Amino acid sequence: MNESVFPRRSLLSGILGLWPLWIGSGALLFSEQSWAGAQVEEPLMDAVRTALSSAIANHAPPVPEFQDTESRLVYLRWLGAMSERLKKKKTDWVTRKEFLQTVWYEAKRAGLDVSLVLGLIQVESNFRKFAVSSVGARGYMQVMPFWTRTIGNGDASALFHMQANLRFGCVILRHYLDRERGDLFLALGRYNGSRGQPQYPNAVFAAQKNWFFSA
Question: What is the C-alpha separation between 44 and 149, in angstroms, rounded?
Fold first, then answer.
């Protein structure tokens, strides 16, 4: 069911499938420390850089919009179910609501499954906003600071801002998925810097099961 008016395909599809990128990540499931792989910052073609920068800079507020009442009710049921599951990690209701609403918005905006993004966040940071890996990857989705220089405004501290971190993470994961022609296993490997190895994708897939929702 299409739950919102957000496009199912990424804004980055097509042109962003032309060039590989690398991102830092790799926290162990339920770990209290984040661990990032040995990624390499690589030059980007101008067209790719422009498309990524545009996707990052479009700061629409994370307010869900719906085509009909039923779609809104589905979202509200999802929000309630996810809030209960996240309660031990984020005890304050308002904080949980804001986080979940933003995850939902950014995942839909990038054409990603929301349960996948939540699973990745669980593996990467265990839902810790200020998580930092041993090589400097930051925040919920463990984004490497060089991304803010490459496609952002250069302010690495923004990666500790909830929406900015989720925006960067979702945009880059969408790029990897396009780059790998829809192969999620390989796309997750790229996100972690371990393409072709099963440990990280399997960890994310296992965590994703905690966030499945049946309307």
Answer: 12
